[in-house]
């Protein structure tokens, strides 16, 4: 587990222990304690949804940027391949011309 995961796990464990101790020694009535717990849970749920939404937006932006870079790289690769293909064809044509010339000398 990474250091960050250990820290998060420790924080969550501490929060759970703190909540349990708080409930056991709470001076309020059960209905008030339940209302506070529900409010805390609602806040935590809302915060988690916000965090997930922000994280997913960041991921979407990173994937869009990566896709754009990949598309550009692909286009550059195709362009370079086309240029290299022309070089190879020119080289082969010149070699073919040389071979034809050598063949013509041999046939005389």
From TrEMBL:
Membrane-crossing segments per the record: 6-26
Question: What keyword terms does UniProt attach to this protein?
Answer: Membrane, Transmembrane, Transmembrane helix
Keyword Transmembrane helix applies? yes
Q: InterPro entries from the xrefs?
A: YtxH
Pfam families registered for this protein in UniProt? YtxH
**Can you name this protein?**
YtxH domain-containing protein
What is the native source organism of this protein? Flavobacterium cupriresistens
